[in-house]
């Protein structure tokens, strides 16, 4: 998508491993035309030595969409970023926030915050390789390092490599003793760190992530920084994306869930015809579309039954939605 046509990064859906694949992103795009969407983290090794189409194929309707990379070698990241640009992504994002042991074993993710000069060099290498924006997603601290100076110095150093947009998950990452899930819940949120980064680096775009789940909290954060990134809440209650789209971008935005189902039926039919994609790979992301409506439990049950999904076609979505319509 040409840069002139890209919306601001006011609202984005976070990269979530095993969740924000291309089917999830297509669904979210139907709900919010302006939100930025992010891929799951893709490692440089997976791209340089693996199945590139499997990792990078996406539907043009998803745009604006960013490719999140995991890696710590400037040359490899530059090559992977170039692939992302060639495949049509609108942004390359470097993961400096994931605390999982698998990521630590690869010497990237949150542990990179201990090496800001290396991250600066990684960003510079990617910036030299592509013409699209290179952004960084990171935490505010590592383990028990709770000083604002730590994240301030990290951002200041990395910005020297040419990054102008930083996505700040406003929690520390504990590299030992907490699971990835616990790392999203136990370390306290410090939105004030993101706000202070914006005051200290007025020339940079600062986007905050972590614990944001409703419109009032979105507005509170937007009073301090340039954008918000929302993860689990957007996935678990996807219809909220329509509310946020209306409030932030287009007051007249008012799709119906029936219209969304109809689009998903068409999408699933295309995926099955062109790629042989099984329904279970797609509909697992749609389970929460009926949240809050009578019949929602029946909707989820029909779309998650292995026996039902085994040989199912797109008409399964209409059958599941009929349970909601009849319950209402």
What does this molecule look like?
- This protein is an alpha/beta fold.
- The chain folds into 2 domains: 246 residues, TIM Barrel (Alpha-Beta Barrel), CATH 3.20.20; 71 residues.
- The chain is 45% helix and 14% strand.
- The protein contains 17 helices and 9 strands.
- The protein has an 8-stranded parallel β-barrel with strand order 1-2-4-5-6-7-8-9, surrounded by 6 helices.
- The longest helix has 19 residues.
- The mean pLDDT is 94.
- It is an enzyme of class 1 (oxidoreductase).
- Catalyzes the synthesis of 5,6-dihydrouridine (D), a modified base found in the D-loop of most tRNAs, via the reduction of the C5-C6 double bond in target uridines. Specifically modifies U20 and U20a in tRNAs.
- Belongs to the dus family.
Question: What descriptive keywords fit this protein?
Answer:
328 residues; 9 strands; eight-stranded parallel beta barrel; TIM Barrel; alpha/beta
| Alpha-beta classification | alpha/beta
Rg value: 20 Å
Helicity, as a percent range: 40-55%
CATH superfamily caption of the largest domain: Aldolase class I
Q: Ends: how far apart? A: 40 Å
How many domain modules?
2
How many helix segments?
17
Which fold name is given in CATH as the topology of the largest domain? TIM Barrel
Mean pLDDT: 94
SSE string: EHEEHHEHEHHEHEHHEHEHHHHHHH
Tell me the name of the CATH class of the largest domain: Alpha Beta
State the major sheet. Answer: 8 strands, parallel, barrel
pLDDT under 50 segments (min length 5)? none
The CATH architecture assignment of the largest domain turns out to be: Alpha-Beta Barrel
What is the 3D shape? globular
Protein name: tRNA-dihydrouridine(20/20a) synthase
Cofactor: FMN
Organism: Uliginosibacterium sediminicola
Family: Belongs to the dus family.
């Amino acid at each position: 998508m040409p840069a002139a046509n890209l919306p601001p990064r006011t609202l984005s859906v976070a990269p979530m491993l095993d969740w924000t694949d291309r089917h999830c992103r297509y669904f979210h795009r139907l709900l919010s035309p302006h939100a930025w969407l992010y891929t799951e983290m893709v490692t440089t090794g997976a791209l340089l030595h693996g199945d590139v189409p499997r990792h990078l194929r996406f539907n043009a309707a998803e745009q604006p969409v960013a490719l999140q990379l995991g890696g710590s070698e400037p040359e490899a990241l530059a090559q992977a970023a170039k692939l992302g640009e060639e495949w049509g992504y609108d942004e390359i994002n470097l993961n400096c926030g994931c605390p999982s042991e698998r990521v630590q074993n690869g010497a990237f993710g949150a542990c990179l915050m201990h090496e800001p000069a290396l991250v600066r060099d990684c960003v510079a290498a990617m910036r030299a390789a592509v013409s699209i924006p290179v952004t960084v997603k990171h935490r505010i601290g590592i383990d028990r390092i709770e000083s604002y100076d730590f994240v301030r110095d990290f951002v200041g150093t990395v910005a020297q490599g040419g990054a102008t947009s930083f996505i700040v998950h406003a929690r520390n990452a504990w590299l030992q003793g907490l699971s990835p899930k616990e790392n999203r819940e136990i370390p306290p949120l410090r939105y004030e760190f993101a706000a202070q980064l914006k005051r200290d680096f007025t020339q940079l775009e600062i986007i905050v992530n972590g614990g944001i789940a409703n419109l009032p909290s979105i507005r509170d954060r937007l009073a301090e920084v340039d954008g918000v990134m929302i993860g689990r809440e957007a996935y678990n209650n996807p219809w909220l994306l329509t509310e946020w789209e209306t409030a932030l971008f287009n007051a007249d935005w008012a799709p119906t869930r029936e219209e969304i189902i109809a689009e998903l039926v068409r999408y699933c039919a295309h995926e099955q015809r062109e790629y042989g994609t099984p329904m279970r790979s797609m509909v697992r992301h749609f389970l929460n579309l009926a949240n809050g409506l009578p019949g929602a439990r029946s909707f989820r049950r029909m779309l998650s039954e292995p026996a039902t999904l085994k040989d199912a076609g797109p008409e399964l979505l209409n059958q599941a939605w009929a349970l909601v319509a009849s319950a209402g």
